[in-house]
Amino acid sequence: MKRILTGIKPTGYAHIGNYFGAIRPAIELSKNPDFDCYYFIADYHALTTLKTKEEFEVYSKNIACAWLACGLDPNKVVFYRQSDIKEDFELNWILCNVTPKGLMNRAHAYKACVEKNQEAGFDVDNNVNMGLYNYPILMAADILLFETNLVPVGLDQKQHIEIARDIANYFNNKYKKVFVLPEEYIQKEVQTLVGLDGRKMSKSYGNTIKLFGTEKELQKSINRIVTDSKLPGEPKDLDCTLNKIYKLFATESQQAEFDKKLAGGLGWGDAKKELFEIANNYIKPMREKYDYYMSHFEEVEKILHDGAEKARVVARKVLSDVRKAIGVEK
Ligand code: ADP
Ligand code: TRP
Known about the structure:
Layout: E1 2-8, H1 16-30, E2 35-41, H2 43-46, H3 53-69, E3 77-81, H4 86-96, H5 101-105, H6 108-120, H7 130-144, E4 150-152, H8 158-174, E5 183-185, H9 215-223, H10 241-249, H11 252-263, H12 268-295, H13 297-326
Helix pairs in contact: 3-12, 4-7, 4-13, 7-8, 9-12, 10-12, 12-13
Bound molecules: adenosine-5'-diphosphate and tryptophan.
């Protein structure tokens, strides 16, 4: 049986890119009886970017309810909040001491900040906190603490898994072979979703469609999808952003029918109405569950609490092995 582990950090409201790119595939994997799945809310990772207590609370609650509304079954998946696993932060410190600083200098997220600062003529470390700098070490702790074999992530996270493997090797070589070496699990069929403006859908570009907004919000986001200026009656490019988003929600026959309509000159206004209909029908049953969990959050708290209890059984064992290996525990 393989241990599968992944986390999502609550840095904004979950969007349909997160759903199709991460949440849905992770839930599909959890239905495979060969996999023992650990999914968590990486709330302490979100601290590197969140500005207020309110943001922390609102986004953590949103992602917890989103996972459950999208079909995560807490009887099949160990589902927990990172901040509830204190062992993670002890391991984080221990791992800091086997991690060469140069490895962190080469991490993509940090390098991107440095480059941005250089271009703007600022000090290289302007706006960089130590949380951002050490981010990959905490992520390695998240993974190594649970004897993880496979980590399902998007391509953007590949380097972080490689770093986790490097850190595991540094530790295993320095002390004793305690850690299982994790591998990234990048699903080929999971595509990168485009946002309203045609770029990758991302909170940082402000081009997202919220997964669990109201119907009105969904309508408003769809109306903001950037189109060309072709008039009704003129054939539309089937490769356009609107069609790419439509396809996510449609069956094959619905896709073919919509292609035909666009090629036949369907106006953008009508196309947006059709997209709203299909997206809303798809999301509606999940939105109802989401609303339920949001208004019965004590049930979610209980699920997360029970999940943390289960997770800690493994975490305590691995941390104890680590403590013994370094000589702090007999
Ligand atoms: P964002 O870019 O909006 O900040 P995150 O980095 O928090 O999103 O992503 C959380 C998860 O959702 C990751 O596993 C990531 O790969 C996935 N994801 C985010 N945006 C997309 C997208 N546009 N297409 C596919 N997957 C995505
Ligand atoms: N860094 C991941 C992201 O930005 C979130 C994350 C934190 C994670 N810890 C993890 C993912 C451990 C997989 C495993 O999406």
